[in-house]
Amino acid sequence: MTDAPVLRLASASPRRRELLAQIGVPHLIAPAHLDERLLPAESPREHVQRLARDKALAVWRPGDALPVLAADTVVVLEERIYGKPRDLGEALATLGALSGRTHTVLTAVALASAGAVTSALSESRVTLRALSRAECEAYWASGEPADKAGGYAIQGLGAVFVAALSGSYSGVMGLPLYETGQLLRAAGVPLWVGGARGGDAP
Fold first, then answer.
1. Mind listing the pLDDT tens digit for each residue in 146-196?
2. Does the predicted model carry a pTM greater than 0.90?
3. Could you list the active site residues?
4. Is residue 192 part of a domain?
5. 117: domain CATH number?
6. Counting Cβ atoms within 10 Å, is residue 23 exposed (0-12), middle (13-18) or buried (19+)?
7. Residues 112, 143: contact at Cβ < 8 Å?
8. Total domain count for the chain?
9. What is the mean pLDDT of the chain?
């Protein structure tokens, strides 16, 4: 029997669903659909925190007993955000820029409940080994990079590119579990309820 949901997740990301299930937080899926473009003069840190909060508030319903959890992740190198590549050319450019260098992964998480929003920011440093054009092309052909910030998945095939990680592995995946757990506990949302995976919101 599935445990009753204790929150809504403002994301359709299967990775975030898996991470919530890992810490025993049954949930409903209610994706937020927002314009995620960078605002003028907005820093990467400001950007990712704004989007997480806006996503949570976009899904939260007045009077709803379930709080809303949202997150946003960006890959940053020299204050430039590298998003999800749309084609092979963008994937090659992104992976080429990150190749052999250390970049920052910022993931903000926000929890909306009773009109109030609390949030936290996870910052990790990831070093990729030097990548050849041929392996970047082969990686793109796998289909994995297309919906990943920075064009790679640390939990997938792209793991072989990662030479070093300082920070939160789950944060690089898209939902920092330490920060998420802190927000949920502070709001009285139970953890370790069970292993149930989330369902779609009604």
1. 989 999 999 999 999 999 999 999 999 999 999 999 999 999 999 998 544
2. yes
3. 72
4. yes
5. 3.90.950.10
6. middle
7. no
8. 1
9. 93
Q: How far is CA 2 from the centre of its chain?
A: 25
The token duo for 181 is 């757990």
Give the domain range for residue 31: 7-200
Asked if residue 2 is part of any domain, the answer here is: no
Phi-psi region of 143 (alpha: psi -120 to 50; beta: other; left: phi over 0): left
* 118 within some domain: yes
Alpha-carbon span 126 to 135, nearest angstrom: 19
User: Does a structural domain hold residue 19?
Assistant: yes
**Three-class secondary structure of residue 160 per DSSP:** helix
Structure tokens at 150: 């920075």
Tokens of 77: 């190198």
Q: 98 to each of 3, 16, 90, 107, how far by Cα in Å?
A: 42, 24, 12, 18
109 conformational bin, left if phi > 0, alpha if psi -120 to 50, beta if neither: beta
